[in-house]
Design goal:
Strand order of the largest sheet: 2-3-4-5-6-1-7
Helix content: 10-25%
Order of helices and strands: EEHHHEEEHEHE
Number of strands: 7
Largest sheet: 7 strands, mixed
Shape: globular
Number of helices: 5
Distance between the termini: 25 Å
Strand content: 25-35%
Length: 211
Amino acid sequence: MTNSPTPHTSPLPASPLSDGIHPLPSGKLAAVVTYLEMTQRPAPRDVAAPEGVTLVAHEAPDLAWYRGLYRAVGEDWLWFSRLYMEDAALAAILHHKDVEVSALTKDGRALGLLELDFRDPDNTELAFFGLSKELIGTGAGRWLMERALDLAFKRPITRLFVHTCTLDSPQAVGFYIRSGFVPYRRAIEVMDDPRMNGPVRDDAAGHIPKI
């Protein structure tokens, strides 16, 4: 349940936006991005895995497999950043020794994505976290978050951060707060609508009208 604007780990400049409404051109979207962080692992919660669910690590994952899972989890929330990336740029991230990609699987099918980026140990990122529709509401998200925190704080990190935005599930911010993250920053992201001749299917995210 994290969308994909450019992460910011250093202070952002003061917003140039004045109060009020700012029209967007056709083909553009705007989202409010919320950044959240934690500096130590919260007390573990006793959360059982839903029946048939396991977490499988994928070292140096195949790019086509990864993009397929990324779409399955994020396309209806307009996740788009990894779909624009060239193979070499995406492989440089996913095949890095300090990036961990895992899939939540059920009955042999990959239905959830967990990606942790340890390349900066002072600013470790929960880069992508989400479930396909059929697992939402089953408790799989709570179980996956416990596994994410176990993996993150198994290393000597300083902080773990995540960002989500208003294109994502409306439950995302509350879920992260309940998991122990603390909000610390907001930003506005303006982007091309990825459904407009872009990498996301034309009928994705029906709750967000195309203009």
